[in-house]
Design goal:
The chain is an all-alpha fold. The chain has a single domain, classed as Na+/H+ antiporter like fold (Up-down Bundle). Helices cover 70% and strands 0% of the residues. α6 packs antiparallel against α7. The protein is globular, with a radius of gyration of 22 Å.
Amino acid sequence: MHFAVAVPRKPSTLFAFLSVSRIVMLRQVVETLAFGAIGGLTFGFLGMPAGWLSGAIIVVAAAALAGRPMRMPVMLMRILLVALGISLGAVVTPATLHGMATYPLSIVVLLAAMACVSFAGSTYLRVVHGWDNVTAYLASAPGAMSQVMAVGAELDSDLRAIAIVQTIRVVIVAVGLPAALLAFGFAGQAVRSVGGPFDLALLDELAILVAASTVMAIVAYRVRFPGGLLFGAMLTSAALHGSGYIHAAMPWWIANTVMVCFGAVIGARFANTSLRLLLNFVGAAFGSFAVALSIAAIFAGGLLVFVKVPVAEVMIAYAPGSVDAMMLLALALHLDPVYVGAHHLSRIFFVSLTMPLVARRKARKAAKPGDAVKPPVAPRPFQD
């Protein structure tokens, strides 16, 4: 009689590789969040302007440049965008909606400013640093970074140069702008926390708020609305709070956690970037940023002559920074998120629609006879 002996099978090489890679990825994410928490908590409790955000950016970016593998998963970033949108919409009241009458003129001036920023920034990179026309234009585009990178890959531009210049621009605005506003007296002291207290009596309202905002965020994302996860949740939350139907707000500890995590997201963009490579492009990054900031300030100053809007709100609305970072600054500095959000949404629409057309036109002019421009690549919807 023969007996079958069960011999345990060894896990396949592929399965073992996937398991190890997941563990490594998880460890990198935990390390990134740990660095972000150290920076955010330190700057936040010290009362630094938008410290929860800027502290996390600085520490995570420093760790990435020191060689640590900083990583933030895409799914976590999407959840953060929805939570941020809910928090931003919660500060809207029926009174804030009456101020929307001043938006059209301000938005028209903003779009004119962004067109000038792109032209002047690309001219600076071409003349001063000798960049090619297409790479210079894409590096100077004021926002829509994911679309910029997609078009850059399509047109065989220098993606490293574009990514570094764009990322440095985001970091400078997110870290330096709130400090500058505070130093010149255009913004009050930064609050130590944002959001509201957790009220069990409003738990049902909070559940409705989160559910409705999440659904609309997903819908906006699916239809490829620019910044859909952020703006879908924000507009839904703003409508519920502005109508007076919902009074619950995101608990302060969630709102501050979102700030720290977003700081880690921005800082992690420097992962796999050597300090030497960064220094090669830092002059171009700071120079093009100075050009962009000067032009935006000129247009913003002209607007303030005709429209009575707080200086801090105009500067945040006109700043060529990422949407999520600018909206977080509006929240942290107690500015009107509806005004700021309307302008950055308009900026993203404008850049997303015009940038691919202008970039391809520049590429056709620069192409040699017989060269063909690659077919368009659908950009991945993401915030910037």
